[in-house]
Each structure stands twice: as C-alpha cells, then as structure tokens.
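Why do we care about 3D structure at all? Because function follows from shape, and shape follows, mostly, from sequence. That is the central idea of this module. The next example makes it concrete: a single protein chain, its amino acid sequence, and then its structure expressed as tokens.
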Amino acid sequence: MRYACAMLSLLNIVRRVRHGMTLGVRVLACDDAGRLLLVRHTYVSGWHLPGGGVDLGETAIEAAHRELREETNVEVAGGPEGGLSLVGLYFNPQVGGRDHVALFQAGPLVIGPRPERNLEIVAAEFFTFDALPEDLTPATRRRLSEWREGAPRSHHW
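And the structure:
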C-alpha cells in the first residue's frame, strides 16, 4: 500500500512538471436527507469534497462527473450534460503555484452501493452538517462556510 501511495504522489509531481498549469475539480454533493458527501484519500490526510484532476482532452464538468462516479459511486441525475453548476474557480497556490480548482454543486443524486476501499479512496461517506468529521480539510471547511453560512468568498482554495 505504501508503494502504491508513493507512486500516486510521484505521478502527481510528474503531471505538474509536464503540464505546467493544472486544473482540478471538487463537487459539493448532498443526498435527499441533506447530508454532505465527503471522501478520505490514501495519500493525503483529512476528509475532502470528492474530486480530482482534469485529464487531457476532458472538460472540467466531465472531470467532475467522472471523479464523483469513480471516488464515490454516485452520479448526478440528469447525466453528464446536466446536474452540475459551477460555484467558483479558485487558485490553489500550494500545488506548484499554477493550480486552479473548479468547484461544482450537484443537483439530485443517484447513489450506488458504497465503493470498496482502493488505492486512492479509503472511504466515501455522507455526513450531516452538525456532525462533520473533525479532520475536515481547511479548504473544505472554507468552502462550506462560504456556501452554507454566507462567509466572504475567497479566490484561494
């Protein structure tokens, strides 16, 4: 498992060096009960909004649909052409100084069986807003504060 995590980290570094500017996506997704979907990765700490990198030849919205499906086995009703709306575009200075993250909000969800643990994802869970995990990442906390509480929006992830 450690070898696989090291390889994923190395691949991320190589991608950043080869491609210059990078673009990632994250998705705010809630089930019918209003619970927030979060994921825990094998290679970084904390709970995150589902998402990942935009692949070569892929649009940001296509990447958001793909990452949501791959990481959580959840799809947005309305398919790849709908169901997601852009919340904002954020600069992520901690990733090479040229990274941006597109944040999308999902409409109604089609929830499949929970995915099994794999090389990338340890867990994908829904949480009520009054019982979010303590180790929620700072960026995720900021986005939720902006979205739910009307906190001033930052342009930094």
